Amino acid sequence: MVSSNLIGQDIGAKVDSILTEVVPALMGPGITIGILKNGKQEIIRSRGLASLEYQIPFSDSTVFELASVTKQFTSACIGVLEHKGLLEVDDDVRKYIPELKFYGDTIRIKHLLSHTSGIRNHNVLLDLMGFDFQYSGYTNQMIQELMFRQNGINNRPGDKMLYSNTNYVILALIIERVSGMKIHHFAEKELFYPLGMHDTFYENDLSSIVRNRAAPYYRSGDEYKEPKSLSLCVGAGGVYSSVKDMLKWMKLFRNDDHDLSYIPSYLTVLDTLNDGREMTSARGVFVSRYKNLTTINHSGRDWGLRSQIIWLPELDLGVFVFANSDHVNAVEISYQLVDLFLNASGDQREQMTDYKHSMKELAAFQGIYQELNSDMKMHVYLRNDSLFAKSSMGGIPVYLVSQSKGKFHRDDNASVTYNFDYRVQDDIDMSVDFGGAEFYFEEIVLTERPNENLQDYVGEYYSDELEVIYELRMESDKLVLHYPNNCCYTLTEGQKDVFGANRRTKYAFKRDRKGNVISFTVASEGTVKDILFKRLD
Predict the structure, then answer these.
(1) What is the pTM (predicted TM-score) of this model?
(2) Cα separation of 240 and 409, whole Å?
């Protein structure tokens, strides 16, 4: 554990208290945090073990995987190439990747950076294929080939933000083709070495020895287990770093004298959507509001790890959090740490002037909302004089605090907002924003058993895009889905010819003129839609 006394013992003690509450057992998986205040005041704290197998505690030299926090480094590599005049963010992606199909409108590099390309998320596609994540691995080339097979995208480029890891796998390929170097060599030469980030690198060999590496862990009953990844796919993830190096990265956000000082401005450019609305999704980071303050942030999550980086320019404050257990909420902890400085400074900007909704206004927001391209539902309802939301995926109802007209934030996390102002659009009635990553919902009406004969849907169906067969069977009077490595998902109904299995996946069936079921399309997790499955029998 390393700390600076420049910030103050009181803050340091409160940081220790937060970490002790999160990681009560010193001999379990741990957490490490770095705080940068005013460019040179630092706190680094660690608690728990980086390795359960060897009983090695976290330190400021522990190296860990960043997961999706990687995206800002991939974006920065594109920024370096543009700074050198080798590409422009307005370039057509097919200028560098002609293998990508033309989907009726131009996908530009800026669309990849801001997640507005409409390109399907490969993690979801792999799951829909029945990919065995535990005993199989995938590579950049495999994801590229999967993407090149896709016959459609989710939306016209620039219409909306839909988070997709595939955008950054494609960006990695552009970096390599334009620079003539593998991305790990390019990033080392152009980013990490100039910034003195000697613990930071893109993974390029699963068999390499990485000194001081933290292992990831997940709970299984009363014990922890260590997932073993066989995948090597970089761009959306794949960067390793240390808390010391992440503090060096955050210093760049306030340093005007470095050769790379243009990078923070480049990363935080906010483009507008086709309808003129400004986004909160920038280039590998989100630019969003927290308690009336601007934040530049991004989180990361993978099997057995969580990470979060957040920079607040108005406070001259940066916070980084990494945990090697997936039950630790790194995002929530980062905001707890930010709140310590807000409270210590007495900054009045944290006191948000909440809009007061009338009971009539609150009542109008009640209903059942379903995520677009998913079967996840959100029940929004009044209890006494307060508005609550409860997801069909489980969990407890959350109290929604009025923030502005038609907009609310969660009582337990002000960075998560619910926006009902989308009601002017045809297909969106509500959005939920997780610090910049936005998910869209439509209000629906459910009916009891809208499909009279479940036997109509029984049979085998094939997808050319996923190269997989789905089988639907009747089992104990229920419609049950089977596909590779996935068994016995009971499909539930609520709308005519539309089913779900409460796993953020929706199956919409199509009939011919005679009323016979001939196909269905799959939409999943809000980031994949219109995957066609044709009936085989």
Answers:
(1) 0.93
(2) 33
